[in-house]
Each structure stands twice: as structure tokens, then as C-alpha cells.
Amino acid sequence: MMDLIHIFLTDSFWAASLRIATPLIFGVLGALLCERSGVLNLGIEGIFVVGAMMGWLVAYGTGSLWLGVIAAALSGALFGLFHAMLTVPLGLSQHVSGLGITMFATALMSFSYRTIFPQVATPPRIEPFRALDIPVLSDLPFLGPVLFQQTALTWLALLLVGLVWYLMDRTALGVAIKAVGDNPDAVNAQGLSVMRLRIGAVVAGSALMALGGAFLTMSAFDAFFFGMVNGRGWICIALVIFASWQPGKALLGALLFGMFDALQVRLQTMAGAIVPGQVFLMVPYVLSIIALIIAARKADYPRALLKPWFKGQR
Amino acid sequence: MPDSPPVLSLRGMTKRFGSVLAADHIDLELARGEVLALLGENGAGKTTLMNMLFGQYTADAGSVHVWHEDGTEIILPPGQPQAAIEARIGMVHQHFTLAENLSVIDNILLGTERLLHLNRNRRAARAKLEALMIHSGLDAPLDRKVRELSVGERQRVEILKALYRDVRILVLDEPTAVLTPQEADMLFASVRSMVEQGLSVIFISHKLREVLAFSDRIAVLRHGKKTGEMATNDADTASIIRMMIGEEHDMPERTPGTPRDSVLKLDGVSIHPTRETRGLRDLHLDLRAGEIVGIAGVSGNGQSALARVLSGLLAPDAGAIEVGGERIAALTPRAALSHGIGRIPEDRHHDGIIDALSVAENLVIERLGDADVQRAGFLRRASMAKNAEELSAAYDVRGPGIHARSALLSGGNIQKLILARVLETQPNVILANQPTRGLDFRAAAEVSRRLISARDKGAGVILISEDLDEVLSLADRVLVMHAGELTETESRDRASIGQLMAGHAA
Amino acid sequence: MIEIVPREQPSRRLTTGVPLLAAIGSLLLAAIPLAFAGAPIFAAYGQMFTGVFGSLFSFTEMLTRATPLIFTGLAAAVAFRAKLWNIGGEGQLYLGAMAAVWVGTGMIDGPPILLVPIVLLAGAVAGGLGMLGPALLKTRFGADEVVTSLLLNFIILIFVQMMLEGPLKDPMSLGWPQSEPIVDEAVLPQLIAKMRLHAGFLLAIGTAIIAHVIMAMTVWGLRIRAVGENAAAARHAGMPVTRIFLSVAFASGALAGIAGVSEVAGLRGYLTTDLSPGFGYTGIVVAMLAGLSPLGVVAAALFIASVFVGTDSMSRAMGVSSFLADLTVSMSLICVLLGGFFARFRIRRVRTEDAA
User: Fold this and answer.
1) Is residue C222 less than 8 Å (CB to CB) from chain B?
2) Is the ipTM of this complex over 0.90?
3) Of B343, B395, B489, C86, which has the fewest beta carbons less than 10 angstroms from its beta carbon?
């Protein structure tokens, strides 16, 4: 018990929680944008892979981490556009299209990686983002390591929470996106384009998802591995329901998640002898399912989610 | 106000769907500051006409003329919704087009603000809206979410949405269909005050009391034609009803049934009113074998709740159903079937058939356990085919064949399929909900003939219909449903039944 | 302006032709990554072809590869017919395999005639329960089965790992995480001497036929189709919609579970965590290519297995990454989705009249 309290008192625990939460923050925000407009994007898992691979590849090629980040966002947006074209103007099954995008993106990235880097003993590495060392702030006790020794991408994620909140709550565009996910007829009746709003939201949301992937190869690790996304995309799809499609709660959900995951790692070292390590590895996925069960009953799904809309039809 | 200058003129509007002439050279004039009531039954052509005005449909013939305040005349290009918006014509649909997850003000301002502006200044918009609410007397809680609002409040938001866009012509499609009488009165008072300030209104309804109290002029549509037009001052209920439902025409003489034992009783069946439905209030009904009980009424007064209770899809909050000598608190679809209640649903595509299944399969989906349908869980295809051939012939179900997907059948043939499925089991009770809606004359007559013959063979029939002609020509007893209550009437007089339908004691 | 108009009667030729076109289309599209990888395109296609049809061995390898895909394809097809989104085929496959190993490594003794069915049944039940869970979470709590069945895949795989390092670990494996071998009496026999093709393939074909018979010829199949197409009308007609939904979930999971048994008892002989290279996910593509028809699943599985086996062979010969197969398979899914669109809709150009 004392050990447990001790864990909660260490700054490294909280720093790890925030670090683990970062890709999820990107992913949940991305899923939130897509679903608010009425489009489920199961391409998320694949788009994470795209972001991880493209961000890392461009950073490796150009030596510029930020060019890598931009490349990740742009290529994520491209796959988002693909999903949007299939599901919005053509109105195809969002489930099947999303799974198709995930399979396609994952396969394409794996193929490209293997083609560019034929079997090598050690995967090529990049110099990843480093912790921002802010004078004074980083040296604060506790807060310093937790908040001010994170990398730029974590700060970008936190900034994006605010931006997405501002967009959805304080701008006409955000209001229109929420409206198109609730009742496209209302949007159409006011002379706005349902198609453009939805395509735009899916493209932007997919760019955010890709940033989550980029964090993995450019901040958490320094190379691209197969299977490194490991279900994080799916977890985001569960978390966005838990977050009731609100940016603030999305942050909270991702942080809670990061906390449990960080705790799990520490408990594992403590209790590893008694409980098999795998029990702890399951924690994130089990938590996601539990979060989903808790949230599902009162989940306030965007009413038009999954429903294709065609002009001139009721 | 016949002397006011015109603001809108529809000339020779015509629209044909396949073989149906939905609008047949309809002319309509609207003067500035006038309330024109547009009356007609379902399918009379009101919606088609308005869809042409708003550019949702392209008219086959005819033109839409609009006059600006300065007297200049423009002709709206057909098939362009934007043109109607620019001409400042607004419509409040019966089914609201509101985003429920947004606040009232967000809904009203949707589409009026620049999307890409980073900050929005709503002070001016809010001031304008508040002034508008005072002027019109329509008030709505601007910062509440629409989903928290009552139906009446939502409707006010819809109207405010139109007024905020400075409409000069406002079309209200059955605005009171979902309102309580008090809410309706408030609405009329508000619209009146807007009209005095120069708004022109087209008001679609089939509630005679409202039409008489609220409009300046009345136009009546029937079967796609304008059958009459008069100043409201010169109109009375009888004359309007005559225009709406036509003269007494050569309906076959009704052959009365011979009622026998009771087959179904409703004993105080009640459903709490919710936002969706009007609820049901303490319904009592005694249906006997060999009679048709017709339930007339304006739709949305609880008929669909009653039908859902009898179909086993909705459990009453109070009361009981007595069927076949057994008292049941709530039916299930299975129990309804096993007690011999045959159901012809209102929405045949949604509840009546499964599109992707074949005609032969759809004919047996309510009795999959029967020995002629299955043996040890395997479908008896040959026996099903024989059954389908026989029923198709007997009920004249026409289509690409009994093995074709039912989606390929026309509406009339789908209804005949459902009729065949229901009647072949010789149910004790038949619930026929709007059984002829949307059917052409011959198909409708066939459905009526079948219901009468089922009655004569000893079934008790509950016929729910908005079409008063249909009720009067088929029913042995007439009940009127209004605001969730059933009232029996001895009268066969259209006018006095119309009064009951409008909620007045006869 | 472009308008999307539904076809009044979906073209029959298009509906049946679409999967074929999608398959061919995805194969042709594979030329792009081939060129990107710098391989001689025609030679590569030739190598893929001979990699499947070049010898009896390669052909039976393809059939061996198709075996689990038929099962997982059927699992997806049956579920999707009832609009149940079972994306957890991968996890259910491992559950089935685990049950097979648990029962089939000495827990029970008996002749093959007894032991093989018992092992199959155990796997089927384990897989079935694996999907019944998400389906119950859906009907009880409204938790989306797409997400829960997906997440279960990860949980189950970790669980398998845990079992292989714990209770199911083969003490003779020198620390390698693998199970004890299946006892000889529970092994699905080889069909042809010296080839890896096993009785699981015949079982798969038989299962597809049974699934076809159930869907087309039984009351249960009719109900599944009815619930999937129009649950409201099915309820109105008195069908027990929830119970049908749950029964489909169990059946779908069971089919995926049998895929796992077949791989363990027919091919590998023991369980490891790399038993399936994503058969569960690929099953979704198989089902979609098959138009959700059980017999179509067999054809689609043969096609996709050919892509995998052919690409493997080409990959070894020409040094092109074998991920090309995954790429081709994923493209075939997108092609069939698009093709389905053109079979159901027409795209019409409408001229907007100029304002008068």
C-alpha cells in the first residue's frame, strides 16, 4: 500500500502518464472531429501507422523533425480524404470503408518500409524530439519534470485540445460541423454544403490521428516498427464515446488512460513475481471496454452518425 | 385584404410522377399581409406544390412569380432552392430541421455567419433576435439546447429562424399538428401580429376550426387540383368539407355487418403523453365479430400509439386488453399473432415486408413455425411456393414472380401481399391501419372489398383511417380519435364528425 | 452538377460480376507497387501464377492457406448478414486454438473418431463464447460490438501469450512459448502424402455447404436474413430479434474458433502466438468479396489464398516485399466496396438551368 502511494508521489509517474496519453489525445481529438460531423472513421488504426511511418521517414530523409510532423499530418489527411470520398459523396458503409482504409494503409506502409529498407539488422534511427528544457520552469520541483520536460509534440497535443474546443464551441464552423452530425437536413436547409463540411472534418480529423502516430516514431521511440500502433487507434474510438465527443473530456479520458497504463508498468515491476506480466498488458484494452460499457448506456451519439445523406432524399 | 398588392403568384403549376398527376395546373395568389389557408387531405398535392415553390422539385409546367416591395416582379427559376431563399420565402416544415445538439441561437444563426471567421460577434445578432422576439411575441430560450425544448418551443425556433432571415413570405406546414391547443393559440396570435407588420403567410392545415379562425382566404386542393377558393368570411365548415372530400359520389351501398360476440376489448388502455406521441387516455373499446369499427381522426392524435399497442409493439402504462377471453396487460407481436390478431401496418415498407426476402418468404414470415412452412427447421420450399402461387392468384399480387425480391413489387401489390398474409390465417381480429394510403383507386377498392369479406366471414375489424370517406363507406360503427381519446358517434354526417375530429363536442 | 441515382433494379450482371472485377482490379493495381519496388512486372505476375499453379505442392499449399480463410470468411459473412459487426475473428480464432490445445494435449484420451469431434467442438464453443460476449454487451448495454470485438482481439492474444508462458507451456520447449503438441488421436489427418494439406480443408468446404444450406433452406437462416435486412419488420412479424442476434453471434464466433482448431490440429500441431497472420481480419475481406454468400466465401478464400501464396513465391524469387499480398488484399476490399456502389447506383450528370 505504501508502495502505491509512493508511486503517486513520484514526478516520473505523472510525467509518464502524460507521455503515454499524448498519442491518444491526438487520436481522440481526430476521432471526435470525424464523428461530430457524422462519419465514423475506423481508418484510424491505419492512419496512425501512416503518421508513424511518414513522419519518421521524412524526418529521416530530411533531417528535420518538423518537416516530418507536417508530412505525417498531410499523409494522414490524404487517407482521410480517401475515406471521406467513399463514405460521404458515395455514401458507402462507414464500417467497411474504415476497415478497408486501415488494412490498406497498414499494408502500404509495411510494403513501402520493406521496399525502402530491405532486411537490415538494425532499423534506421532518427534523433527524436527532445524534452523541451525551459529555463526555470523545467527546474520547478514536481511540476517541472511532469509538465515542462515533455517534448514539443506533447505540448502540441495539449494546445490542440484548446484549439479543437475553441473551434467546436466558439466558431460558426464548429457549430456547423456539430449540426451536420446531428441533422444534415438542417444544414442543407440553410444553404450550407453537407458534403464539404463532412469531408473537411474527416480530412482534418485524420490529420490529427496521423500526428498521434508520428508521436510514436518521433518522440516515444526513434524508429518505425511493425505493429507499433498496437490497437491505440481502436482505443481512441472507445475513448471518444467515453468523452461524449467533448475535447475537454477527451483530454481527461486520455490522461486517465495514460495514468492507468503508467501505473500498470510500475505495478508490474512490484507485483511481477505474483501476477503474470501479461495481466498488466491487458489493462489498456480491458479499460477501454469498461469505459465503453460505462459510457454506452447514456452515450449521446451524434444522431446522424453512420447515416449517409444524399441531396434531395429524405 | 384582397386589395393589397400581390407578393406571390403560382401559375399553372403541374407535376407528374409516373402515371400520377400530383399537381394539375394549380393557380394560387398571395397578397401582402394575407393569410392563405391551403386545405386538402393527404396526397391532395399540397406538399408537391410547396416543393415546387421551394425548388425541391422542378415543375413540369407553370411558373412562380414574386413581387419585391418596390413592385418589381421576378420569376423564380425552377428547381433551385437557393432562389426561394434569396426571394426571402421561408418555410417551417412539419418535421423540424433543427440540430438538437445545438443551442437555440446556434440553430438560428446557422448559415448566416461566415464559417471561417475565428471570432464571432454575436452582440448584434442577439440584439436583433431579442427585438424580433418582442415584436413577434414568439419567445425562445436562446441559450438552451434544442433537445431540451418542448415541441411548441421548437416550432417557435423554426419560425424565428425564418424571421431572422427577413422572410416576406412564410409557409407553415401543419404548424399545429404537434401543438397543444394553448400553444396553437399562442402561435396564431404571434403570426397575426407579424402579418399586421406586412408578412404574408401560406398556412397548410386540415383543422377546420383553425382555418376558419385564423385565415383570410381559403384554397382547397383535391387529387392535385384546386377545387375551390373563397374568402374565409364567406366560408363555413360544411362548404369547406364539401370542397375537401368532394360531393357524395357513387360509393357502393354499405352493407351492414351482423355483429356477434365480443372478440377484443380495450379496458382503460392508457399511455402517458410523451414528446413523440399524444399518448392514449383511458381507451375503452368493445370489438365484436362481424363488424368493422372505423376510427376516424386527424393523424397524430394517438392512432399510431393505439395501433402499436394492438400490434404488440408498445406496452400500455395502464389498462388491459381482453382478447379471446384472456386478459393481457401488454401484447407482444408473437402474442398478438397467437391470439388471432392480424395486423396491416401503417408503414408497409418499414414494418410490413422485408424487402430483400422473396414474395413467397414474406407471405409466411408471421407463421414460420407452421407445419406447412417448415419440417424440422427446414423450409418446405415446395409447399411455400404452392402457398405463394395460390395466394398471389387469389389476391391478385402481381410482380416478377413469387421468387423475386419483394422490393420489386409496387405499393399496391405489396399491400395485397400483406393482406393475403394476414387474411389467409383467418384472424379473429384485423387491425387495418391506413390500409389504402397511397394506393390507386382500383387497389384501394380491392383492399376495401377484402376487409368487408373478412368481416362477413366473422372477423372483427378495426379500421384506422384519416380518410373519412373510407371510414364512412366501410365502418359499421364510427369512433373519432382526438388528442388520445376515443369518442363514439352515432352520426354519419360529415360535418358533425368533422367537428369531433377538430376536438369539439358534437 | 452530378447526381447519384439509385438503380430501380440493381443490375444482376453487375452484382454478380462485381467481386470478379474487384479481384481482377486489385491484381492489376498491384502492378503499381511492383513497379515502385522495381520488379519486372510481367515476370512477377508469371512467378505469382506458377507459385500457385506450378506444382501439386504449391497448389496444395494454396488450399492449405485457404482453409482458415474459409472459416473466418464464413464467420464474417454469417455475422454481417445479420448486421452484426464481428471484427473479432482473429481473437475467436485464438480462443478456438487454445481450447483445442487445452482439450487435445492429453486431457482426454480416446480414439480419433471421438477426440477429433471433441476438439472441434471445444474450439467452436470457445470461439462462440468469444463473440457472444460483445453481442451481449451490445444488447444489454448498447456497447458498440465493432469496438469491443476489436479490442478483445488484443486481450485474447495477450491471454494466449500468458497461457503459453504458464499453464499451457510445453515443458520440453526449452523456454520457447509454445504449447505441448496435440495428441496424435486429435490431429486432423493429411489428405495427400508429403503435402501439408489436411482434413481441415474438407471440413471447411463442408462447413461452407452447411452454412449455405442453413442460410438458404432453414427457418433460422430466413430469420437471420430477415433481422439483418429489416429488424423492425422482423419484430413486427413476431420474430425473437435479440435471440436471433445472439445466436448468430455465437455461430459466427464458433466458425472463427474452428479456424483456430483447424490450424492447430491440422497444420501446426501446437499453439504459438504467431499461429495466425491476421486470418481473422482477412476473413472480413473474404466475406465482402463473396458478397456474404457462404459458397462465394470458398471462391473468395481460394482467390485470396492464391494472392498470398503466389506473392510469397514471387517475393522469394524477386526480392519484392511479401507485404504486397496484404496490399493486394486490402485493395480488393476497397474495389469490391466501390463496385457494389456502381451496381446499386448510377451517377448522372444533371444540367442546372441558368437563372432566367
Assistant:
1) yes
2) yes
3) B489
